[in-house]
Amino acid sequence: MTLGACGSSGAGSDEALDIWIRQAPDSDSAKTAQKLADAFTKASGVKTKVTAIFDDFETKLQQQAAQKNLPDIVINDTAQLGNMQGQGWLREVDKASLAGGDKLAEGAWKAAQAGNGKYYAAPFSAQSFALIMRKDWREKVGMQPPKTWEELAALAKAFTDKDPDGNGQADTAGFVIPAGTKRGYASWYASSLIYANGGDFLTNNAGKFTPAVNQPNAVEAVKFLQDQFCTAKSVNPGAVSNDTTVTHEVFEKGQGGIYLVGPYVLARFVKSLGADKIEVHPVPKGPSGGPGTLGEGENVYLMAGSAQEDNQKKFAEFAVSAEGQRIGMNKDAPGAIVRLPVNTTVNLAAERQDPGWKVFADAYPDAVYSQPVPNWAPIRQASADAINAVWADCSSDVKTAMDGLATKLTTELQNQKAS
């Protein structure tokens, strides 16, 4: 379904460019988004209005679409591209005519490309994943940074059993995991280990997709994590119901010591815990191979039906410029909305002093983006439901569950005409 004239109704050049971003209102990230918009206004003369929404972001976009009143600009996850493009919400972006587009990393452009090969966004931010962990705890238990999954599991077990915070109570866990099903978090978390073990959710054969989640490498990764939940019991209690908002707090409260996550919380944890207490290490490759962790980020989406098409393009061009990228990075302070810059002229080391950022940057070239199916969202959600179930029910057989998931993904791919 294509929604004609579904942008901000009646919006003209005298009205503010309506920008939505998926961040918590009044958060540091929302304030950075406002700085970006203010700098754009100063440079272009175009007035802006920034709306930060975190909970039920996609649902609220659906409501605006039903009213034919979409915002002009949306800054949102790369994985949402297929979902939004499939509903006719996005304008196509001419990669060649976007000023500064030739300076953007080619890998980031791939995350702005739909299954039909066309581009429907301007890349804005990229990220890989790494292990943020409690350095003080690791030193307390006398262990080295993990280089293998076996060492990673052993460190998590030590964090669980050896009282790393020294309070005499059994109140710490190794892993903190957002293992709930909301927005597909269980799948999102597991994907980095699936990719790090040479697995995938789907196989792409010249644009035709088949499930791969029940292949040995993927099953091995999900089983490794089930073992941490069920055998080692080294995962924070309640993880199977948690999203990232709760999991961030679990880590900050000292209830767990190893968090496989993106770089967007690094500055927050440095501020809340202290630079001397945390460290960043690469995700070890699994026993069956690589290449690396999940790769993702955010795009600037130019929403369909806007009466301000020229201003939409101007904002996208400013956001991907070196100036826009540096504002979004926010140096080492909390609130970065550009995690790793997609503009190749921006020097990460010149903007950020925390050495943890380099770990994420070094991991990015091997990061794996989700497959370019027409709509990734239902695939992530179905995967999250299945993976969450085997972590929550320790009697579940992982291979059987992944076979069942593969059957569901086959049906979904057929529905998307992508199989």
UniProtKB/TrEMBL annotation:
Keywords: Signal, Sugar transport, Transport. One of its GO terms (cellular component) is ATP-binding cassette (ABC) transporter complex, substrate-binding subunit-containing. One of its GO terms (molecular function) is maltose binding. It comes from the Bacteria. One of its GO terms (biological process) is maltodextrin transmembrane transport. The keyword Transmembrane helix does not apply. The keyword Transport applies. Pfam families: SBP_bac_1. PANTHER family: MALTOSE-BINDING PERIPLASMIC PROTEIN, MALTOSE_MALTODEXTRIN-BINDING PERIPLASMIC PROTEIN. Belongs to the bacterial solute-binding protein 1 family. This is Multiple sugar transport system substrate-binding protein. The lineage of its organism: Bacteria, Bacillati, Actinomycetota, Actinomycetes, Streptosporangiales.
